[in-house]
Amino acid sequence: MANREALKDFQARLAVRLQEARDEGVSVSSWLAVESAGGRFLLPLAQLGEIFPWGGAQSVPYTRSWFMGVTNLRGTLTGVVDLAGLLGSVQPRSEQALLESSVLALNGALEVNAALLVDRLAGLRGVQAFVASEPSAQGSPVYFGGAYVDEQGMRWQELDLQALSRHPAFLSISA
Fold first, then answer.
1. Nearest 10 degrees: CA dihedral of 22, 24, 29, 35?
2. Cα(141)–Cα(164) distance, rounded to whole angstroms?
3. Which end of the chain is more exposed for a tag (fewer CB within 10 A), N or C?
4. What predicted TM-score, i.e. pTM, was given to this entire model?
5. Cβ contact 91:119 at 8 Å
6. Residue 70 or 20, more confident
7. Rounded Cα gap, residues 6 and 88, in angstroms
């Protein structure tokens, strides 16, 4: 129970910081860093909406395994996509792992009622948080941006959520 409260507090603080960054037009923090199935990803703040704790989703029959179902996010019926599953991970999540996950709604400007399920929020990041960068790898999906390496030597992959939300694989949820 204490872990859940700590997660809620962290999400509330992060939501406040995200809103402050948007209000002030701060370009220092341009990404939300997340982890999912062992991968580290950078999601552009301008392409994200709100952050929600995992509260479950109504499953939809005959859909791909990475489509978690639909849920109500502030009165909007939203499809929830497991980011790790979409990117090819087949590791099942325990119920406890799901409870510790977060749902990131995509910005309404992308015109798709979708959200991403991620394992862990890792905070806000800007270019200054990294010591090296490299362009997207040859043959990588079109929604992969550059990759960045932090001071600890960890590699973070940027995801273009607008390109992802238009990608046929993302839009084809039927099994």
1. -30
2. 9
3. N
4. 0.81
5. no
6. 70
7. 30
